[in-house]
Amino acid sequence: MEDRRTALKIALAKVASGDEAAMGILYDQTNRVLYGSILRIVRSRGRAEEILQDVYMKIWRRAGTYRSDKGNPITWLCAIARNSAIDVVRREGRMTEIGDDVLENFADDAKPADDWLCDMEDQEALRKCIETLRSDHRTSIRLAYFEGYTQSELANHIGVPIGTIKSWISRGLMGLKGCLGG
């Protein structure tokens, strides 16, 4: 795990200085994880592939802004991918080309498909903390942050007022912050 993290940090540093070969290495090491993260949100293979291309363009341009003292490189990369996918869903709407059953079977050579976060250590700590939340808070946070639902979509999906969703997410995030020591 530490070797992979170190390799990604080195590759990102080289990408920041314009090293195209390092970009290829970074792509080879991360494309399946990022694609899976995007696919879970947009639910369309074609859209996910397009977004993935855009994500790597963003990484190429922004590699110099990555700060290793602020977090793990894969977490930073996944945040770019996730935010890009959510932006597309908010702009163009959610598609249902791919069902949850397909997403569950989407394999990643590095990690099981159930892992929602890109970094295993962060994922395990977060998983434990999420399990301590009330059921409604936990569900709202999972759908919003791991599947890219907007608050309006959540309200419609769950069948509660948007104010309730906002409250659940806010309280849940405060609980997570306390649990994670933030």
From TrEMBL:
Keywords, alphabetical: DNA-binding, Sigma factor, Transcription, Transcription regulation
Keyword Transcription carried by entry: yes
Transmembrane segments: none
A single MF term (Gene Ontology): sigma factor activity
Gene3D superfamilies: 1.10.1740.10, Winged helix-like DNA-binding domain superfamily/Winged helix DNA-binding domain (1.10.10.10)
A GO biological-process term: DNA-templated transcription initiation
Keyword ATP-binding belongs to the record: no
Stored SUPFAM superfamilies: Sigma2 domain of RNA polymerase sigma factors (SSF88946), Sigma3 and sigma4 domains of RNA polymerase sigma factors (SSF88659)
Segments forming domain RNA polymerase sigma factor 70 region 4 type: 124-173
Coiled-coil ranges (or none): none
Domain called RNA polymerase sigma-70 region: residue spans: 26-94
Entry similarity comment: Belongs to the sigma-70 factor family. ECF subfamily.
Protein name: RNA polymerase sigma factor
